[in-house]
Amino acid sequence: DGGITQSPKYLFRKEGQNVTLSCEQNLNHDAMYWYRQDPGQGLRLIYYSQIVNDFQKGDIAEGYSVSREKKESFPLTVTSAQKNPTAFYLCASMDRGLYYTFGSGTRLTVV
Amino acid sequence: AQRVTQPEKLLSVFKGAPVELKCNYSYSGSPELFWYVQYSRQRLQLLLRHISRESIKGFTADLNKGETSFHLKKPFAQEEDSAMYYCALRGSNYQLIWGAGTKLIIKP
Fold it and tell me: Which pLDDT does position A2 carry in this prediction?
């Protein structure tokens, strides 16, 4: 199962805690994306990166942070500033043909 | 404004019946549209794109610029078609703009 690997599959966070979601790809894609998926709301873009050491805020970046130190990796940190973090998080990468490949997702729950 | 609208959150049809999942878009310019599907416990994957005019798993979608629509159709639904379907539009910055999704349930 190559392509994009997200870990963990399930993550539980206590109030006030920061957690980091991992996203790794071996597709040699330059662009990577983080989306949040909530029922009835489709996919909303959190952050994206088109090249190493550069990233941009998406539509709902507040309470999240990212880094892109390596081409293969684009971790997402959900900070305590994110007021409603319980959701399904999807990572994706895009090839030069502009087509997306998605990871299998991480379900984050606040306990 | 660039926007994708899927008016139905849930669509339930009987096996063997025709299926149509609606998608309308708002985009100034020549749109590039996609349908993605997410089966239970599987990752989101591309179903079809309008530029290829292909039929995948019996599904087709025609771009209607006059009605700004890209509805997904299948003449005879099968139980394995039950899934979440998303319509997406490639925006002016090459990123995808997503509809809210339609959950399709095929009843036996």
Answer: 62
Q: Give the pLDDT mean for A9-37.
A: 93
Flag the least confident range among A8-17, A69-78, B34-43, B91-100.
B91-100
Interface touch A90/B44, C-beta < 8 Å: yes
pLDDT at residue B54 in the model? 77
Own/partner pairs for A72-75, CB < 8 Å, 24+ apart? A72/A24, A72/A25, A72/A26, A73/A22, A73/A23, A73/A24, A73/A25, A74/A23, A74/A25, A74/A32, A74/A34, A74/A49, A75/A20, A75/A21, A75/A22, A75/A23
Give the residue among B47, B53, B5 at the shortest CA–CA distance from B25: B5
Task: Report which of A50, A94, A57, A95 is spatially closest to residue A76, judged by C-alpha positions.
Answer: A57
Residues from chain B contacting residue A98 (CB–CB below 8 Å): 90, 94
Pairing of strands A10-13, A19-25: unpaired
**A45 to chain B: which residues are within 8 Å by CB?**
95
